[in-house]
Write a structure and sequence with these properties.
About 75% of the residues lie in helices and about 0% in strands. With about 550 residues, it is mainly alpha-helical. The longest helix has about 40 residues, at about 235-275.
């Protein structure tokens, strides 16, 4: 996995310094950097990337930790965790479209409050989506990253003996939240550092969500790099490469600053933990405080997606009517041919990349090589926009751009880390005594793996496959750049429609993008139950 990233970075760094023979760049120069620095919107784009990326990461992490600290071990916590699967299966772009349809000046929130509360009989002239501060972009990122970090935190809880730590803290008179922060958080955070770094790198360089919700004049740096990369003027490829390298440096700088902040907080945290404050009086206010973002995320996703579905079949729908005046399937019928074509391509890419990634993950976990597993996670920490333009140029030079195999290979680069991450904890939590029993009965390592371990981990394998499938469906930038416009997916079509303003078309494509991974997640949950209905021992993992 490090090889494609390294090749892509090389393909970005060399043109960033003027060397790209295919476009006439045969000497090394700083001309691309001078052109980049001369762009008037550079300062604002860099600021937006930093503010939205760091802001979304801090908010997502804070909400996640507060949820676990305030509710772990309660019925409410079990209800929250049970809703993770559908939230995780939802692609970022579909969630962003749902939020945009909800909070836009003519969205459902404005319709529900108009005209009785606002006095509006037409959509107000307010910049909510695409706001210059990037608040809508931060909200869209938080809505998706909280479920991911919550899943990673749940996995970490089982490795840190959190229940016993909390029992000791409560027996010493600590409140639930403060006790969790002092006794459990230090151990848990050490387990989720990599996912937090991945969220920071992703949030600072995201493209599809930024196109749907983010500012436009100027956009974030990643979006501007994509504009230069796809411009008809090929000389802008040099500027795009310089921008991609700058994006990488920004992310590396942010990660370095995050590590320094960790050390500072750890130093101050030791003194705070030793201070002895029990914080029992803070439990109720903090629970109420964290209930608001939980409700906003749940309602935002649910109502936003309902809005997508409604717009896809809406006929005449005037503002401020809460519901359409008529319904129809005309848009679905008009798009049916294109839906089938791109839907099949999307499912083939997602299914094949998830299957290959599942096989590679099982092989890596079975081998138990921690260094190999570390290499798998490299694509999570390097911004896509930093190396995909270089990889696209390399594919163009090799004559592989715009081919199904090239798009499948680059999807695998991103599917494998997430799939391995989701499978790692169940794999290591498997009771090795079952394998020892099989070995004493004469089974070899391969038979133990195929006849004992994999069947017992069927549920974990199915869920990991669903995670990989959803990750592939959500890939926008790899499909766009490596596919070169010839290999389209549901996601590339949906995001391309973002600028059209046609909510009915967007609703159709975003709904299909949402349904595909959700259907696979549903099958992943149902299949193990069907297979193991007469084998109770298989239903526990």
């Amino acid at each position: 996995m490090a090889l494609p990233v390294a090749a892509g970075l090389a393909g970005a760094v060399l043109p960033a310094f003027g060397f790209f023979p295919a476009l006439g760049g045969t000497t090394v120069s700083l001309a691309p950097w001078r052109e980049l620095l001369a762009w008037p919107g550079l300062g604002a784009a860099v600021r937006l990337s930093l503010v939205t990326g760091v802001g979304a990461t801090v908010l997502s992490l804070a909400i996640t930790l507060l949820i676990v600290a305030a509710w772990q071990g309660t019925r409410s916590f079990r209800a929250i965790t049970s809703a993770l699967a559908p939230l995780l299966s939802l692609p970022h772009a579909a969630a962003a479209f749902g939020l945009a349809f909800l909070i836009a000046p003519s969205g459902w929130v404005a319709r529900a409050l108009s005209p009785w509360a606002t006095g509006w009989d037409r959509p107000p002239d307010l910049l909510i989506v695409h706001d210059t501060a990037g608040l809508a972009l931060i909200a869209g990122l938080v809505m998706k990253e909280v479920p991911f970090l919550l899943l990673m935190t749940l996995a970490a809880l089982g490795q840190t003996d959190s229940t016993r730590r909390m029992l000791v803290a409560r027996s010493l008179g600590y409140g639930r939240v403060i006790g969790w922060a002092k006794a459990v958080l230090p151990a848990v955070y050490g387990q989720i550092r990599l996912p937090v770094f991945a969220v920071l790198a992703y949030s600072m360089s995201v493209v599809d969500v930024a196109l749907i919700l983010g500012p436009t004049r100027p956009p974030t740096l990643a979006v501007q790099v994509l504009d230069w990369m796809t411009a008809p003027d090929l000389s802008l490829r040099f500027t795009a490469s310089a921008g991609a390298v700058l994006q990488l440096l920004l992310v590396l700088g942010a990660l370095g600053a995050w590590v320094l902040a960790e050390r500072l907080i750890a130093t101050r945290g030791i003194a705070w933990a030793a201070g002895g404050g029990r914080g029992q009086q803070l439990d109720t206010p903090l629970r109420l405080c964290v209930s608001l973002p939980i409700a906003l995320i749940g309602l935002g996703v649910g109502i936003g997606l309902a809005g997508l579905a409604l717009w896809s079949i809406a006929g005449l729908w005037r503002f401020p009517d809460l519901m359409p005046q008529s319904y129809g399937l005309r848009v679905w019928a008009d798009q049916s041919t294109q839906l089938w074509r791109l839907g099949i391509t999307t499912m083939l890419l997602a299914g094949l990349s998830a299957l290959i990634a599942l096989a590679l993950s099982v092989a890596a976990l079975q081998a138990g090589t921690s260094r190999l597993l570390g290499v798998i996670y490299v694509p999570l920490l390097v911004p896509q926009i930093a190396f995909l333009p270089g990889l696209s140029a390399l594919g163009l030079w090799l004559g592989l751009d715009g081919t199904f195999g090239a798009v499948l290979a680059v999807h695998l680069v991103f599917v494998l880390p997430y799939l391995a991450l989701s499978l790692s904890d169940p794999w290591h939590a498997w009771d090795h005594r079952a394998g020892l029993v099989a070995a004493t009965l004469g089974a070899g390592p391969w038979r133990v793996l195929l006849a004992v371990r994999l069947p017992m981990l069927l549920r974990a394998l199915c869920i990991a496959f669903a995670v990989g499938f959803a990750t592939s469906v959500a890939q926008y930038l790899p499909s766009l750049l490596i596919g070169a416009g010839r290999i389209g997916t549901v996601t590339t079509e949906a995001v391309a429609l973002a600028a059209s303003g046609n909510r009915r078309l967007i609703g159709v494509w975003a709904l299909v993008q949402m349904v595909l991974p959700m259907a696979v997640f549903a099958l992943a949950l149902a299949l193990p139950a069907l297979v193991a209905r007469r084998r109770q021992g298989m239903s526990v993992t």
